[in-house]
Amino acid sequence: MARTAKRYLNGQKLEYSRLSVYKTAIYARLSVDHDDKKSESIETQVEMLKEFIRHQNENAGRNSELVLYDVYTDLGKTGTNFARPGFERLMSDIRAGQINCIIVKDFSRFGRNYIETGDYLEKIFPFLKVRFISVCDHYDSFAKDADSQELSMNIKNLVNDAYAKDISAKCCVSKRTCQKKGSYVGGMAPYGYHSVNENGIRKLVIDSEAAEIVRRIFEQYTDGLPINRIIDGLFENGVHRISDYNRYHHVYCQDGEVLHQWGNSSIRTVLTRNNYYGDLVQHKYASRFSRGEKWCDLLDEREWIITSEAHEPIISRDIFDKVQIRLKAAKEARSYVGWDENDRAFYNVFYCGDCGRKMATSRTRGHVEYFCQASHYKDERRCQTKNISEDKLQKIVRSELSRQLQILKIKKKDITAISRSVLEDQLAIICKELDKMETDYQKISDQSVQSFLMYKEGKIFLQAYLDTKKERSDWETFFQERRKTLEQKMRMLQKQQKEEAKFLRSLLELEGTSRLNAELVEALIERISLYGDGHLEIVFKFQGGGVMADDRK
Asked: What are the tens digits of pLDDT across the range 366-424?
């Protein structure tokens, strides 16, 4: 977009060069980090950025105009990843062509994970032709000197990343200390309890109405009632599931509220909560955050932090232990003798086309049947009844695969050459970046040496030399981290190339295959969806591989 600026001098109309108009988004984030000050509140950030826009647009020498499209905020969200509602809405509007400029207070408000942040600033935004401005960092990706700012930008992102991990580690230490004092440090209190603060210690106190439901679940399961029957009984009695209980703050469904069926996993969560017999059991899981992962690992029981008799129990320890024995026996019974993953080769790629849930499996007289579990639901989430046997699915998919390969006329030498070429191109890009970094590092090292010599000769002040020395140190830190990341990426690419080679071999070996196994299915197929009208949608992992089939034939 552009706009012609018109001015008048002594009655004569003058036309200036056209201004570039940027549809601008303000992005503000209030971190979950403990040191975020009031001065960095959402409101303060937004007002500061609006003032920046006004100032820029009032500048007579400007060559562009910033037009505010919308404000995007994330309150209390971590900067270590980009799974944030406000940011996701921002990216959606960017892809829709509504925005081509983003303004933030500083890099840390945008994100603290320097790898992901770097990907957005160096790859994604340039590809989408989006201008990025960080006000306090004096950074504008469309400025003439933007390339020269790249080093300092990367260093700042690296520092922000390290800071976030340091804060996380300190929070963990603080949590462990509170847990050892017998203070409950979880978020929402376990179902059946609510939390109160007593002399600085967070205690669990029984919620009598919800506790009665907990006792009912334990007693019914101890008496031999199956979990699905327990779920049916709760639904018939109008008992809110846990998430709806937390929303409405009462147990039984009332007028105007939606009643949802309890899930199997929710019942199992209740049945395995140690806290219900009066002990406060914490630190059962360890975060993988320090390794750059989002998931948690179950710790060995010896590492749990347990405070005995920390609160009033809802059930006895004896009942709890009996339930665990039955749960273990049920789990062992579900691990069918002779059950091989190839008996249900499509399990990991097969979904319900109507509700999107993964298809469940059952086994009767040695035959595997796929079905949608949601078809058994009693609430508004109930899905259409649908099922198909493993044998029938094998026949349909095998036929479609053969047809696709004939259409594509795939040759071994062609696909091998393509795979090798793609890998070589990607590795070349990484090697080029490594070479550039080596060159830049050598330049900075040389500058540091020259600066030292000039300082010794009295040509520059001590501070100038120290600044150059710090720049070299910062760059070295960034260089080492970035090199580690790139080398890891190279290893991943090489691993991926091996997996692709395996996939290609699978294609070529198909002709001699009478039955598809799980490994071959996952190498060839992205997703299979079954719809209530009997149609199958098969998405293959190769070009042109999307088809519709009919299981009614």
From this structure: 688 999 988 878 777 889 889 899 999 998 988 887 777 666 665 555 555 655 666 67
Among candidate residues 172, 187, 442, the one with its CA nearest the CA of residue 283: 172
In whole angstroms, what is the distance from residue 550 CA to residue 342 CA?
23
Whether the pLDDT of residue 152 is over 70: the answer is no
Structure tokens at 182: 């017998």
Report which of 283, 276, 281 is spatially closest to residue 308, judged by C-alpha positions.
281
- Three-state helix/strand/coil letters over 57-102: HHCCCCCEEEEEEEEEEEECCCCCCCCCHHHHHHHHHHHCCCCCEE
Class for the domain spanning 2-146: alpha beta
Q: Is 147 exposed, middle or buried (0-12, 13-18, 19+ CB in 10 A)?
A: exposed
Structure letter (DSSP) for residue 510? G
Burial class (CB in 10 A: 0-12, 13-18, 19+), 252: middle
| 355: number of Cβ within 10 Å | 17
Phi, psi for 182 (deg, rounded to 5): 85, 20
Specify the pTM: 0.45
Question: Which is nearest to 83 in space by CA: 229, 294, 244?
Answer: 294
- Interatomic CA distance for residues 350 and 85, integer angstroms: 29
Query: Hey, what are 126's tokens?
Result: 């340039």
Q: Which amino acid is at 81?
A: N
| 264 neighbors 301 (Cβ within 8 angstroms) | no
How far apart, in whole angstroms, are the C-alpha atoms of residue 23 and residue 1?
A: 9
Long-range contacts of 7-16 (CB under 8 A, 24+ apart): none
Which top CATH class is 193-333?
A: alpha beta
- Provide the residue type at 313 as one letter: P
3-state secondary structure 307-334: ECCCCCCCCCHHHHHHHHHHHHHHHHHH
Q: Tokens 């019914």 correspond to what residue?
A: 220
